[in-house]
Amino acid sequence: MNNFWFCKNTWLRAMHNTKWCLIGCSIGDFGTIAFFQYTDFSIPTLSIFILAIINGLITSIILETILLIRQKFPFYMAFKTAIGMSFISMLAMEIAMNLTDYLLTGGAILTWWVIPIALFFGFITPLPYNYWRLKKWGKSCH
């Protein structure tokens, strides 16, 4: 039997990495949605989600860069590593969070009960890919 998918240490590391990515992505994503929800600016829902995804990617890269600098990486290497993270994983996370929001609220609307559900799907969606990438290639952002 192939034990590739049954390594507890790799799952724990993948969850840790995914957690930090989720924190970074959700800051920019939810911040963008909240901005449009609580201001008089009005643009189409799809545009809000696109901006939320872009801002989520940016804040995730910033957070990862800061975390790597705290681990004694020089700024250039920390930034390069953060930029080199898997955009597939980050995009999947962002799309899962925004799709969850849309399906539950019908728009770009943050409510107290939607946020944990969106975070759950944002975490669980890229986790198998992050595990696979870490197990197969030994690549992670931390």
Question: What does this protein structure show overall?
Answer:
The model has no long low-confidence stretch (mean pLDDT 92). Helices cover 75% and strands 0% of the residues. The chain is built from six helices and no strands. It has one domain (7-137). The chain has 142 residues and is an all-alpha fold.
Which sheet architecture does the biggest sheet show? Answer: none
SSE class: mainly alpha
Integer tally of domains: 1
Point out poorly predicted stretches: none
Q: How many runs of DSSP E, i.e. beta strands?
A: 0
Helical amount among residues, as a percent range?
Answer: over 70%
N-end to C-end Cα span: 30 Å
Write down the overall geometry: globular
Number of helices: 6
Into which percentage range does the β-strand content fall? Answer: under 5%
The radius of gyration over CA amounts to 16 Å
Summed over residues and divided by their number, the pLDDT gives a mean of 92
Order of helices and strands: HHHHHH
Condensed summary:
The chain has helices at 8-38, 45-70, 75-83, 87-105, 114-124, 127-137. The chain is mainly alpha-helical. The two termini are 30 Å apart.
